[in-house]
Amino acid sequence: METVILAVVIAVVVLGALGGLVIGSRRKKSLPPPPPAAPDITAPPAEPHVGDEAETPRDEPRRTIEEVDLPDGSAPVVVEELPAPEIEIPEPTAGRLVRLRARLSRSQNALGKGLLTLLSREHLDDETWEEIEDILLTADVGVLPTTELVDRLRERVKVLGTRTPDELRGLLREELLKLVGTDVDRAVKTEPEDRKPGIVMVVGVNGTGKTTTTGKLARVLVADGRTVVLGAADTFRAAAADQLQTWGERVGAYTVRGPEAGDPASVAFDAVKEGKEMGVDVVLIDTAGRLHTKTGLMDELGKVKRVVEKHAPLDEVLLVLDATTGQNGLVQARVFAEVVDITGIVLTKLDGTAKGGIVIAVQRELNVPVKLIGLGEGADDLAPFEPEAFVDALIGD
Questions:
Q1: Is 204 marked as binding a ligand?
Q2: In what ranges is there compositional bias, type Basic and acidic residues (predicted)?
Q3: Residue 348 assigned to a binding site
Q4: Phi and psi (nearest 5°) for 263?
Q5: Residue 303 among known ligand-binding residues
Q6: Does pLDDT of 24 surpass 50?
Q7: Residue 121: left if φ>0, alpha if ψ -120 to 50, beta else—which one?
C-alpha cells in the first residue's frame, strides 16, 4: 500500500515539473511590439484672407482717427471731364476737283503730253498712229475706246491740215470729252422725293480704300449741309467699324455697328432704321471688302441689299475701284454688277498714276458714270467728278 502511495506522489511531482517547463518556455518567446504612438503634427499657418496681414502684426504705434487729417469739405472735389471730340468743317465740294488739279495732272505725262507730242509731228504715218494707240492702251483707256479715238483723230487731223499746238490741244480736248461724256448725270443720289433718308451702299474689293471712301463721302455730304448716319456693315475685317466710327465722329455723324463677325445684313438694317428714327438726310452703308472670286461672300452682299430694301429702295450703289489696278478693276466691276445694280463708280488712287484712262474704260464697260474720284490721302481729297476739269488736267495747259 505504501508503495502505491509513493508511486502516486512521484507521478504528481513529475507532472508538476513538466508543466513548469512548458510555461517557462512560453514566457521566453518575444511578444510583438506595441503599436507606435501617433506623432505630434504641427498645423501649417493659415493663409491670410482679404484684409489680413500676411505676417504676424508688429507692435507699432498707430494713429487714432482724431490724429488723421481729414478733408474739411471746404474745397470741392473736381472731376475732370473728357473733352468732346471737335467737329471738323469739311471743305466745300464745289470746285474741289479744280483745287486738286495739280495732283491729278501728275498723270498727264503718259497720256496728255505723250499724245500732244506725237500729234505735233510733221508727218503722222502709220507708225506714229500705232504709238498713239499704245499710249492710250497703256493708260487703260480700253481697246474699243482707243480705236474710236484714234479713228476720229486721224480723220480730223487730215481735214485740219496745218496743226498748231493750240489747235491740237483743242482737238484732243474735244475728242477726250466725247469719250468721257459731258451729258451724264454724275450727282450722287441722296435726296429721294417721297421719303427720308436717302440710302447709299458702298461696295468694293479689299484694298481699294472702300471704308476710307465711305468716311470721306460722309464729309462730302456734311460739307453740302446733309446729316448722315453710317452703317458699319463690314463685320469681317478687324477694326473696320472703329475706322468708320472715327471718320464719323470727325464730322458729327452717328455710326451704327454690330459685333465682330456678326451678320452684316442686320447691321445695315439697323442703320437704316436708326437713320429713319433720327430723321437724318442720308444713310451710308459700308460693306465688307469681298474678293470677287468668292461666290458665297458675293451672295452675302446680295443679301445685304435685299434686307436693306425691306425699309426702302437703295438710292445709290457705289462701286469703289482702285485706278491703279487697270483691267483687273474691270473684271471686278463686272462681277459686282452681276450681284448688285451698280449706279455709280468711285475711282480712288487716281493721283500720281498714268492710269487716267480707266475713267473711260470702266464707264464703257458698265455703262455707269464715274461720280467721285480720290486724289490723295487727305480727308478732303475725294471730289465730285467733273469731266472738263479732268480732261484739262490730263492734257495740261
A1: yes
A2: 49-66
A3: yes
A4: -80, 115
A5: no
A6: yes
A7: beta
Q: How many residues can be counted in the chain?
A: 397
Task: Tell me the whole-structure pTM to 2 decimals.
Answer: 0.75
Tens-digit pLDDT profile for residues 81-97: 545 567 888 877 777 77
**Can you tell me whether residue 348 is helix, strand or coil?**
strand
> On the CB side of 6, how many CA atoms lie within 13 Å of its CA?
3
pLDDT band at 349 (very low <50, low <70, confident <90, very high): confident
Which residues, other chains included, contact 19 with Cβ-Cβ below 8 Å and sequence gap of 6+? Answer: none
Return the amino acid letter for 275: G
Binding residue per annotation — 211? Answer: yes
Element (H, E) at 230: strand 228-232
The predicted pLDDT at position 339 comes to: 81
Composition of the chain by helix, strand, coil, percent to 5: 45, 10, 45
Q: Does 51 belong to an annotated binding site?
A: no
Count, in order, helices (H) and strands (E) of the chain. 14, 8
* CA atoms of 325 and 347, how far apart (whole Å): 11
**205 a known binding residue?**
yes
Q: What does residue 282 show for φ and ψ, rounded to 5 degrees? A: -140, 140
Instruction: Evaluate whether 379 touches 250 at the Cβ level (below 8 Å).
Output: yes
Q: Angle at Cα 103 formed by Cα 100 and Cα 106, nearest 5°?
A: 145
* 43 labelled binding-site residue: no
| Residue 286 is labelled as binding a ligand | yes
- Are the CB atoms for 377 and 352 separated by under 8 Å? no
Alpha-carbon gap, residue 207 to 212, rounded angstroms: 10
State the Cα–Cα distance between residues 124 and 393, nearest whole angstrom: 25
Nearest to residue 366, comparing CAs of 142, 214, 172? 142
| 198 HSE (CA, 13 A, CB side) | 17
d(CA 129, CA 151): 9
Beta bridge partners of 370: 345
Is residue 208 a known part of a binding site?
yes
**Is 288 annotated as belonging to a binding site?**
yes
Question: Nearest CA to 137 among 145, 128, 129?
Answer: 145
Calpha distance 277→57 (Å, rounded) = 64
